[in-house]
């Protein structure tokens, strides 16, 4: 058996010599990072989430000049809304509807009961759900003093603005200065690659900056349009949104158009340059292929610079996507469409006090109908209590009661329950008087 000498074996080894990537030479025979795969697939979900909110913020459309990761996922998502056979072949699957990009298809609104027209909607538009979540998230309730069994939050909204039927949902959300971090990182890493004469890495960073910037301009041109059926007679549209699940009641006070856009509104994306979406997706695919092929040809230093630009951009995209899309849409709807209406939010400890408070604020045409829907109890004690409360509300009497009242209405074993019910009603009335004082002084909770 032949055994080679140690000296001959060492002579035949290929040693890692001075031909290092950091020296500016080609990296063909040196260590190479898999930056092409990182550029294509790393951070895809985060990049898509950040891109799908660009329609809502007008400033972000012009601030996309940075080398962003996740080009494959962005190309796949937007390539499916075009009619290109090439893109349908590259990204097979069910074509994506424009409305699907908004993320509102699975959002269902709560029940609506009109105060004057008698309209009852068992399910309303996604915008009523966004409004309810926005109120619960941003408004701290004022607690009305009463006993507590089943606390219910009541938000009163005075709608003073009538949105147009083709309103564009767009308002500034993110501070523009935040985009300077990925932009400066991409410019700095590109300049560093140019100084060390790594033109492969330099050109790939510049290509990523140009493609992402162009994509943001084209995709950001899409308008988030609100549409709703215009009522025949634009009279008072007062009513309530009721969520049994969340223990929430929203009292809407305003004209029919304002309330209708909340209850029956729908949204879609309208692109000014629909055909340019196809070319953006093709450009993203081109960037993906070129970066996979050419980035390994750069030096180790250039590849590190390329990864650095992607990392900073990924962090920026992560920050953009960290804010829930529904929260953003709710803010845009309240600020951009409803134009920041006046809000008051209260918390009442029992369902009875919450319903009486709602009737006092709403002043419906048929209070008995709403009272029976929200409090379906029909025992003799409850029926007597309801009749007395309704009579006092219709005649604008104070809801203040002496002991003799429940002694006369419910002598004997029903006295304890009657006392609790009238105590709830009186607490609701006191809370209503406090609300009138706040509304007269223009004091809002938002």
From TrEMBL:
<keyword id="KW-0472">Membrane</keyword>
<feature type="transmembrane region" description="Helical">
    <location>
        <begin position="300"/>
        <end position="319"/>
    </location>
</feature>
<keyword id="KW-1133">Transmembrane helix</keyword>
<feature type="transmembrane region" description="Helical">
    <location>
        <begin position="276"/>
        <end position="294"/>
    </location>
</feature>
<keyword id="KW-0812">Transmembrane</keyword>
<feature type="transmembrane region" description="Helical">
    <location>
        <begin position="199"/>
        <end position="221"/>
    </location>
</feature>
<protein>
    <submittedName>
        <fullName>Uncharacterized protein</fullName>
    </submittedName>
</protein>
């Amino acid at each position: 058996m032949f055994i080679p000498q140690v000296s001959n074996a060492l002579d035949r080894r290929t040693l890692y010599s001075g031909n290092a990537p950091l020296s500016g030479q080609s990296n063909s025979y040196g260590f190479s990072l898999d930056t092409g795969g990182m550029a294509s697939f790393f951070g895809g979900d985060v990049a898509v989430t950040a891109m799908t909110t660009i329609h809502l913020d007008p400033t972000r459309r012009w601030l996309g000049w940075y080398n962003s990761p996740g080009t494959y996922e962005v190309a796949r998502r937007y390539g499916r809304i075009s009619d290109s056979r090439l893109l349908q072949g590259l990204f097979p699957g069910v074509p994506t509807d424009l409305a699907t990009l908004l993320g509102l298809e699975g959002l269902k609104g709560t029940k609506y009961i009109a105060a004057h027209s008698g309209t009852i909607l068992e399910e309303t538009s996604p915008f009523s759900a966004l409004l309810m979540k926005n109120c619960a998230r941003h408004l701290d309730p004022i607690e009305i003093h009463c006993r507590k069994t089943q606390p219910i939050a009541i938000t009163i909204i005075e709608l003073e603005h009538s949105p147009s039927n083709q309103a564009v949902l767009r308002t500034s959300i993110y501070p523009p200065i935040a985009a300077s971090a990925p932009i400066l990182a991409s410019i700095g890493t590109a300049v560093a690659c140019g100084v060390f004469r790594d033109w492969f890495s330099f050109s790939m960073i510049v290509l990523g900056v140009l493609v992402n910037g162009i994509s943001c301009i084209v995709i950001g041109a899409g308008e988030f349009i609100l549409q709703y059926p215009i009522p025949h007679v634009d009279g008072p549209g007062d009513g309530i949104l009721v969520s049994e699940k969340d223990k929430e009641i929203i009292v809407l006070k305003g004209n029919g158009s304002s309330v209708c856009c909340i209850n029956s509104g729908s949204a879609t994306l309208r692109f000014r340059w629909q055909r340019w979406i196809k070319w953006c997706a093709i450009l993203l695919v081109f960037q993906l292929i070129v970066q996979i092929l050419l980035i390994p040809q750069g030096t180790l230093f250039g590849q590190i610079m390329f990864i650095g630009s992607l990392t900073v951009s990924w962090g920026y995209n992560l920050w953009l996507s960290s804010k829930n899309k529904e929260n953003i849409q709710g803010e845009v709807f309240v600020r951009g469409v409803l134009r920041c209406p006046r809000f008051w939010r209260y918390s009442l400890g029992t369902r009875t006090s919450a319903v009486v408070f709602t009737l006092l604020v709403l002043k419906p045409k048929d209070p008995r109908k709403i009272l029976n829907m929200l409090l379906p109890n029909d025992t003799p004690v409850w029926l007597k209590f309801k009749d007395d409360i309704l009579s006092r509300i219709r005649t604008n009497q104070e809801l203040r009661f002496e002991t003799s009242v429940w002694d006369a209405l419910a002598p004997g074993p029903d006295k304890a329950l009657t006392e609790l019910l009238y105590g709830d009603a009186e607490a609701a009335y006191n809370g209503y008087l406090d609300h009138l004082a706040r509304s007269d002084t223009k004091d809002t909770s938002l």
